[in-house]
Amino acid sequence: MIPDKTDRTAEIVRRLRKEYPDAHCALNHTNAFELLVATILSAQCTDDRVNIVTAELFRKYRTPQDYLDAAPEELAFDIKSINFFNNKAKNIRATAEKIVADFGGEVPRTMDELLTLNGVARKTANVVLGNAFGIASGVVVDTHVARLSQRLGLTDEKTPEKIEQVLSALVPKKNWVMFPHWMITHGRAVCNARKPRCSGCVLANICPRIGVEASA
Fold it and tell me: What is the C-alpha to C-alpha distance for residues 54 and 198, in angstroms, rounded to an integer?
């Protein structure tokens, strides 16, 4: 066991980077606005479901103005298989309107500006900044990142905001964008929520397994 959190984090980064060299953002997109829309849709919804919906959505709506030109009920219908589709349709339209009115039709590139958009909190802003623009503004914390960070003994914080603060201090800034992708990929492939495959885990000998069943 590596006792120091900083040392353990460095070793986690090294091993996961080697184990998942092809890890990447799971949301399909070709530009920053598509990624913004996909990330808004992904709240409390699986990435696979979002990708199914956006495959057609992004063929139909190519710019922020396209979302404004469509009737509100049409957009809601187009994303109806997404959880909370009515609220998300309203947020996407409001975000598109603000991007057109305040940012010249372009997705802004700062955290403060992104947080002025409807349906955008730090997680969404970090996803867009990191994956669309290569800007390391923070560490994306989704359910996988939160769960693994707690199991690995990196933090006992519960909220995404506080977990992000801890991880941002532990993970070198150069790895902020990729660290969540490695963690998410590992969380899906090995360290799943109900039955983690600890016997086949590359992190097994440095993991305290906090909250994991003894038989796992």
Answer: 35
